Amino acid sequence: MTGVAQVEVVVAHRERATLRVGDVFLKVDCDPTRIDVEVEAMAMVPIPTPRVLWRKPPVLAIAAVPGTALGRLGQPSQASSTAWAATGAAIRRLHESSPPAWSSRNLGTLTAGLDAECEWLVASGVLSAELVARNRDIAEAALQPWTPVFIHGDLQVEHVFTDGEEVTGVIDWSEAGRGDAQYDLATLTLGHPEHLDDVIAGYGGNADLDVIRGWWSVRSLGVIRWLTEHGFDPTAPGCEIDVLKAQ
Q1: CATH code linked to domain 65-246
Q2: Total-model pTM
Q3: What are the φ and ψ backbone dihedral angles of 240, each rounded to 5 degrees?
Q4: Which of 63, 157, 234, 243 is the most exposed place for a label (fewest CB within 10 A)?
């Protein structure tokens, strides 16, 4: 079998899986609407995205983007400050583009869901009541009406690829829609606060640090149960629970 590309499992859980075979990624999603959103969003945005090769529900095939990921949650980023600033500039171009017709998330639903997760975190003993309460207070800054813009919706640092000082591709657009610009900035810098100034410099200002910190708490509090149930470890150094403790 010499020369045949191996199958790499990039991520896999009960909702979706992503496989890599050579320079092709195969995304399998049980919810076809997420693939609909991903394909439509990538066709609209003014920044580099993967090339869609073919689609046969529930599978989407896309080409790999050049470059390397900006970083990994829980690990120091090897990318330069200039690369982080270039990412901020790319996000600004996205936010200034014409937004889609659909919303990324609903404020009322988001708040209710967060409160339910906070109750579970305390009742299950995963986190102390004091830590949860402190972060729930910080989160309130983000849980206010926002002016909707075109957001990526899941702009984790692993989803941005750069080559030197250039952003070469942004992947995983299934959560894209109309939402709060600060949410993208917060998701990108979650666990990497040392690069927040670089991102804001490239973005060109107009960032609210209290709201960004609020989104750090919202995202971390809201995802711990899901991560645990799907085989991920929010207790790993530099990940969600450490983010909450650092707030």
Answers
A1: 3.90.1200.10
A2: 0.94
A3: -55, -45
A4: 63
